[in-house]
Amino acid sequence: MSEAPITQSPDEQALSRTLSKIDELGLKDNLIELETTGYTTIRGVLSEDRIERAKNALLNRVEKNTGKRIDLDTATTDDFEGMTYLHYMLYEDEVFEQILMEEKPLALITYLLGESCLLSSIGCHFKGPGEGGVIPLHSDTAGPAPHPVYSMVANANYALTPYSREAGALAMVPRSHKLARQPTLPEMSLTGEQCNPSAVSMDLTPGDAVVWHGGTWHGSFPRQIPGIRMNLAVYFARHNVVTQERHKGVVPEEVLKRHSNDERFKRLLAGNQAYGWQHEGPDFEMMAKAPRGLYD
Questions:
Q1: CATH number at residue 119
Q2: Taking the model in full, what pTM does it have?
Q3: Above 90 in pLDDT, residue 5?
Q4: Which end of the chain is more exposed for a tag (fewer CB within 10 A), N or C?
Q5: How far is it, in rounded angstroms, from Cα 198 to Cα 121?
Q6: Which residues lie below 8 Å from residue 26, measured CB to CB, with a gap of 6+?
Q7: Element (H, E) at 155
């Protein structure tokens, strides 16, 4: 009498799908780097058209906020000093929907957070010259230490202008996700003689993307030259983590129509999130479908 075949769990099936997609996209080396170093760079993700559309939409937001148009190449501290965060950009231009769904970064994010992960926020760290643009080293994982070894949140950071240390680049600390804690105050510094010697400058070309584990220490160096460093930070969270931005129930109808055949898009925007009820009470059927593993 033959034994019945062993059926894979939903989590195992999700992992198989995720690894197959990573293989299909040629990201095996990136996956190894992500696991061992805590971050990886994917070159040339965004097309020139998407880069320019994103930059224009972000500059429009800055102009709306400040009343002036900033020159990305020549801006001085008199034009724009330090850094501001441009939040909730998803609905400003269709290009941000397209960037959200870029398949290579999303495949690695899925490995880190599972198929059920949510968009937490999408915005830009708009940085001009000056020490005020420094973001000290930190981990995006909240809560008491030790942090979970698996990722609770994760980031896909797109360069929209050239990145170098003097241009105020993203800083990463290799293997820091293995420490499972926040950096101490002395370990956080990215300026002067106190700068953490383990911090690495991410030298990027516009269109490159860096994906990292939520426990990896990161920040950004001050910009030392004229002009603006512009990124797009697409931040994700596991389905059970409170997101920074609210999308459930407020996605514009025209956006939903554009993605009516894309279940992943709707899921990223909390379309299957059971929590957050009001007078209608809980949806027990949706709660019963909640994932149980790391990858589903």
A1: 2.60.120.620
A2: 0.95
A3: no
A4: N
A5: 28
A6: none
A7: strand 153-159
For the chain, what is the mean pLDDT?
95
Cβ-based neighbour number of residue 67 at 10 Å: 7
Among 102, 95, 101, smallest CA distance to 60 is for 95
Per the CB < 8 A criterion, the answer to whether 96 and 156 are in contact is: no
- The dihedral built from the CA positions of residue 206, 211, 214 and 215, taken in this order, carries a sign that is negative
If DSSP codes are grouped into helix, strand and coil, which group holds residue 153? Answer: strand
pLDDT per position as a tens digit, 15-39: 999 999 999 999 999 999 999 999 9
Token pair, residue 238, equals 């596991």
Amino acid (one-letter) located at 68: K
Measured on CA atoms in the order 127, 133, 134, 140, is the torsion positive or negative? negative
Nearest to 105 by CA among 6, 200, 22, 224: 22
Mean pLDDT along residues 52-69: 96
Identify whether 122 is part of a domain: yes
Tokens of 84: 């501001």
Determine, yes or no, domain membership for 279: no
Would you state the pLDDT for residue 131?
Answer: 86
